[in-house]
Design goal:
The chain contains five helices and four strands. The chain has about 160 residues and is α+β, with helices and mostly antiparallel strands. The protein has a four-stranded antiparallel beta sheet with strand order 2-3-1-4, sandwiched between helices.
């Protein structure tokens, strides 16, 4: 059965999810998380993707953002995903797939629901009992977005303009 076409709307934001194959871990230590964020920053710049929120969980990733051009979403995700797979497979001496199928995306209208969606994904570590507080979880956009400090030398998020 052929997969359905991805819904792409001009000037829309997307909640993007990628999951480890068979729900397996894709991040094992801090280095893995840092490498993914470095590559996220690199490819969001290259493909004009405006990033408004993210949360990296041990076996999956959530992001919310808007591509400048609708056709850039797939290119951005392909580059990011493949780049991280090469790093991961090389580091852990693996071969084959890391991600479970293609990334999923849902349209998020650029209004107050966008902020609700960002808040929702940033709360994933609480719901999964990975952290007692959103503010202490290192691998989400919360600190940069709300507190203005991501614990890193430079920012990765773009400003939300409604």
């Amino acid at each position: 059965m052929a997969r359905g076409a991805r819904l792409l709307l001009k000037n829309s934001c997307y909640h993007i999810m990628i999951r480890g194959n068979q729900k397996q871990k894709v991040f094992f230590d801090e280095e893995d998380y840092k490498i993914f964020l470095q590559r996220l920053k690199k490819y969001k710049k290259r493909y004009n993707f405006f990033l408004y929120g993210y949360c990296l969980m041990p076996n999956h990733v959530h992001m919310i953002g808007c591509p400048k051009q609708t056709d850039e979403l797939a290119r951005f995700m392909k580059a990011l995903s493949i780049s991280y797979v090469h790093y991961f497979n090389d580091r852990y001496k693996k071969v084959g797939h890391l991600w479970q199928g293609r990334f999923k995306s849902k349209v998020v209208m650029k209004d107050e629901y966008l902020l609700d969606c960002v808040n929702y994904i940033e709360q994933n570590p609480l719901r999964s009992n990975l952290s007692p507080s959103i503010a202490t979880y290192k691998w989400s956009s919360y600190k940069e977005r709300v507190i203005g400090d991501n614990g890193k030398s430079d920012k990765i998020l773009d400003e939300i303009v409604l």
